[in-house]
TrEMBL record:
It comes from the Bacteria. This is AAA family ATPase. It comes from Saccharopolyspora halophila.
Amino acid sequence: MIVWINGTHGVGKTTTSALVQQLIPDARVLDAEKVGETLMDITPGLPWTGSFQHWPPWRPLVVETARHVLEYTGGTLVMPMAVLIEQHWREISAGLAQHGIPVRHFVLHADLSTLRRRIESDADLGPSAFRPQHLEPYAAASRAWLHHEAEVVDTTHRTPDEVALQIAEAVKR
């Protein structure tokens, strides 16, 4: 099974995923961003499209990487990755379904002021010019499709431990 943890940049996907991994037996974290980083390392490079998610190979490579890791290890993959374009999510989820891999799709949500505060006060990454650029695309995706396609977990007034426990308990049910 895959536990996909979606949401905008700065909402806490990576932190939550590490905590969820500790709560689900035989769970491993597979960050789909690493697939994008691998593509970015290709030299002389792929034509820049603004995001590695727009490169046609990224989505099927995410599916195939997850499939092969699950075949090798079994258990549960916890995958933190913001996917805000509906067509990209459709390609990934259809690819996983084609291989019979069940997906529990969660979206971490927080109100805008909380997101801005978290981004600005991030002790690990520091203030970011990149992450605030994704707040409006996240809000648009939330209204259009994302919140209808996933289990929404409001993180506004909750600790990462509380959020991870909610997700782990939902997966175990």
